[in-house]
Recover the amino acids of this structure.
């Protein structure tokens, strides 16, 4: 017999946050694009105070920034941002993969397989928002299953910045099938129980995708500001 459970209604603020998050993540507004509370209020049929609450939540997630006196803007990602994120993320996730592999059990294997299957299903639909969510979800799962509290805390600090990074990185993939192909070896390495290989493949995964994104953003910046192009050496100098 199927048990009936209470239906939990979402508040207007939660609904607005989800709608705006999907709008931003799905590319409805380009990086650096402006968002105004009045237009969003009219489009969603919600009060400006509700929209403002939702935008503040997205700001906490790193997806938008508030501009003094002028409204809001979708967060942009610079080449230096990309370099910092892929080097930091690579170190955190490589450690997570090694620790997870060293303490792997059947339950954790099942969780990894289910999350990877969810990524595959999202890629097959071509839903960009779902792909980004499942992509990030797989990497978050590796961190959470590693059993290292401080590692998980550090990852959460940059989680939404990583989401923005993944949005850009996934868009540079030739097709959703390539996203599947680049993540399958990660799961296989961990499940195989080779901790050093799992650590290495996570680091390589982040570096290869990160370099592609870094070069793309560097070229775009060079086209916009020829005198301010950012080289890898300059990125390292700027980040210490």
């Amino acid at each position: 017999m199927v048990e009936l459970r209470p239906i939990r209604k979402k508040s207007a603020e939660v609904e607005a946050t989800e709608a705006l998050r999907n709008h931003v993540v799905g590319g409805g507004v380009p990086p650096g694009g402006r968002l105004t509370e009045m237009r969003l209020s009219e489009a969603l049929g919600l009060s400006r105070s509700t929209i403002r609450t939702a935008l503040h939540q997205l700001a906490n997630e790193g997806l938008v920034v508030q501009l003094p006196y002028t409204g809001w803007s979708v967060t942009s990602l610079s080449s230096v941002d990309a370099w910092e994120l892929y080097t930091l993320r690579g170190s955190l996730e490589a450690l997570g993969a090694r620790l997870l592999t060293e303490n792997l059990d059947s339950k954790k294997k099942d969780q990894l397989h289910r999350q990877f299957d969810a990524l595959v299903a999202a890629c097959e639909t071509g839903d960009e928002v779902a792909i980004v969510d499942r992509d990030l979800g797989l990497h978050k799962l590796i961190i959470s299953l590693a059993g290292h509290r401080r590692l998980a805390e550090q990852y959460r600090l940059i989680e939404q910045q990583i989401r923005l990074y993944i949005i850009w990185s996934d868009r540079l993939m030739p097709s959703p099938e390539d996203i599947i192909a680049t993540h399958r070896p990660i799961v296989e390495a961990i499940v195989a129980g080779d901790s050093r290989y799992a650590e290495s493949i996570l680091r390589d995964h982040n570096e290869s995708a990160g370099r592609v994104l870094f070069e793309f953003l560097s070229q775009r910046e060079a086209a916009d500001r020829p005198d301010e192009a950012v080289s890898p050496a300059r990125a390292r100098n700027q980040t210490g």
Observations:
- The chain has a mean pLDDT of 89.
- The domain at 79-222 is CATH 1.20.120.530 (Four Helix Bundle (Hemerythrin (Met), subunit A)).
- Residues 36 and 71 are 6 Å apart (CA to CA).
